[in-house]
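Sequence and fold
=================
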Amino acid sequence: MSYKRIASLTILVFVLFTVTSFAQDEDDLGTEVVNIVKPYTPTISDAFKVKETPVLNDSVTTQKKEVLYSIFSVPVASTFTPAKGKAATVEKAKPIKLYDNYATLGFGNYTSILGELYSNFEISRTDNAGFFFRHNSSQGGIDGIRLEDKYYDTSLDGNYTSRQRDISYRLDAGIKHQLFNWYGLPESFANASDEFIAGIDAQQTYFSGNVGGSLALDDSFFEEIAANIRYLGDAYSSSEFNITAQPEFSFPVTDFTLKVDGDVDYLTGSFDRNYFAEMPINYSFLNVGVAPSLVYVNNDLTLSLGVAAYASMDMENSESDISIYPRVNVSYRLVDELLIVYGGADGGVNQNSYFGFKEENPFVSPTLYIMPSNNLYDAFGGLKGKLSNSVGYNIRGSYGKTENKALFQINPLNDVAPTEDYQHGNSFQVVYDDINTLSIFGELKVEVSDKFSLGINGEYFSYDTANQAQAWNLPDLKATVFSNFDITEQLYGGVSLFYVGERKDQVVAFSPVTDPFPTEVTLDGYIDANVHLGYKVNDRLSVFAKGSNLLSDDYQKWYNYPVLGIQGLLGATYKFDW
């Protein structure tokens, strides 16, 4: 800086200092307050938008340096070839092909034949028709039996089903032909001559037919009705007609449902003679019942409170009776599916028939006395549930009383002048008695998977009779063990064991000159072991083998009626579509 600039600045500072000093020495002018009042007028400044890229006014800017680069590529030899990718897939189970028809044919020892043919036709989307043919026979050959012991059992059934929007119905019809022999001669015939034995024609044949159906409505007080007409005849000119109908009604009432079930059972039939004389037996019964009940169902409780009233008429003897029976059922879930308590009482009229008796015991004589049984009550209670997802159980106890309960008993031996081939003590009659029955039942089922299941059940009986010495031919114990399993996808099988305890029967030697002398006999308990194995050759064809009575127990199911020994059967089943 030059000396001229320094001198000028010094003079300027001195002048300012002198003026200031002079001003402070002037007289004080005093103070005065001035209030300026002006109304407040707010204003809003203009809005402006911030630019995304502001303009910089820097005096110094930096210029980017240009970068120059290059790639030096060197070829590399490689044999790697990437695989073509494809979308992942989920394994699907092969759908099971279902066929509408199948045929089964099998042959076994004792010249036994098993044949079955089932066919179903889809007429439309809502209508189906089908038929089922079955034949089971054996030429017999039981050791120690001197009479013919072959049997035939052949049936043909047909049906037509229609399922519409609000209504569905089903029509059924069938015929059955059966042949049996009264081969159970008493021991007293062991020394009879071959000529005498050859003169006994112990053959009995049954022929039956039925027509029936059912009708069900949706969204209606009238729920369903089932009806059936059945005819039965035999080789001894016996005949029987049975007409049944069971309508069902349902009326919702607040939290309850009023259900009304009906039962109509008309039975008429005749036998040419009774067992001792040529005196025909005619019977005709009409039973009409109605059973109203209130039903309540929620998540844990199921309750049904009702009664059944029956009017029973013996039209042959012009007798009638009206009876009322309990119909009570309750079930309560204590612990989910683990423990369910149930109980109740039941009763009603059971109309016995010739058809029902021969189905249970085909060796009955065509000289039976038919009457209904009155199940006054059957009180029961029990526990059921699941011990795990695969183990279920059921325990039940019951006590009941039945008037005129039917019991099978061996017919007396007419050793003086038999006129019929069933009068040699080789057929069975039916006797009736009032019986109190105590029963204890237990069951255990194990279903490990759809490839293995196992079950066992047993029931103990105790009888108290009013007139008969014993409850003839009723066992004191029944037990069953069964199992089904799949060894492989093609190989499957099953095993079953049946045990039936001791039974009692009474033998009476009838003679016109002496009083009958009854002798009580005991039939030993028996075990029947059965097994079946099958192999699926393909979706259509499978072969199988069955074995029955594998323990070769020569037991008697009925007195003087031993069964076939070890039985084997080989066969095949073929599925197809027409």
About this structure: The longest helix spans residues 3-24.
